[in-house]
Amino acid sequence: MIADVGQKIKNLRKEKGLTLKELSDDTSFSVGFLSQLERGLTTIAIDSLEKIAKSLNVELAYFIQEDRKKDKTVVIRSYEKEVSQVTSNQFIHYDLCGNKDLSMMPRLIEILPSKAKEQIKSYPHCGEEFLYVLEGILTLHIGGQSYDLFPGDSAHYQSTIDHNWCNNTNRIVKIITVHSTKKDT
């Protein structure tokens, strides 16, 4: 994975016409470090990778997401679980299904604590959702109401209702979600 991240950085840097020196000036990382990183000879912390992502004008997920082919896997072992998406550097999504042609999308989502209380924007979309809290306290905003959900609690609702969820605690929250992926007919 280290070599993959380094190669993605190198490809993107060259695509944008930047030299190692220009990337170094923008990120405060040495040219030597960036060179080693691009060649897969060193590792990088997520917060440092985020700095490079900002400099190259991409989301952090660009470097973490795997270029996976659509497969028809029925069973995904715990050790095969891969990060599928990182959103706002706070939500880490793991796909729990190998077959993207099915109508449900199960995911494990880890929600990191937020540094500051932020305004939560609720939104609707087609389909329906089910969520189950594994760890921590999840705050669910739905239809103008808020609910604190604890481990073992669940919710099932039409996604067409304004909704969102967040972590208002100082501990990680882990949930399983299942979204229908086909549009309502």
UniProtKB/TrEMBL annotation:
It holds the Pfam family Cupin_2. The keyword DNA-binding applies. The keyword Cell inner membrane does not apply. SMART domains: HTH_XRE. Gene3D superfamilies: Jelly Rolls (2.60.120.10), lambda repressor-like DNA-binding domains (1.10.260.40). Keywords: DNA-binding. CDD domains: cupin_XRE_C (cd02209), HTH_XRE (cd00093). InterPro entries: Cro/C1-type_HTH, Cupin_2, Lambda_DNA-bd_dom_sf, RmlC-like_jellyroll, RmlC_Cupin_sf, TransReg_Diox_bact_type. Residues 9-63 form the HTH cro/C1-type domain. This is Cupin domain-containing protein. The lineage of its organism: Bacteria, Bacillati, Bacillota, Clostridia, Eubacteriales.
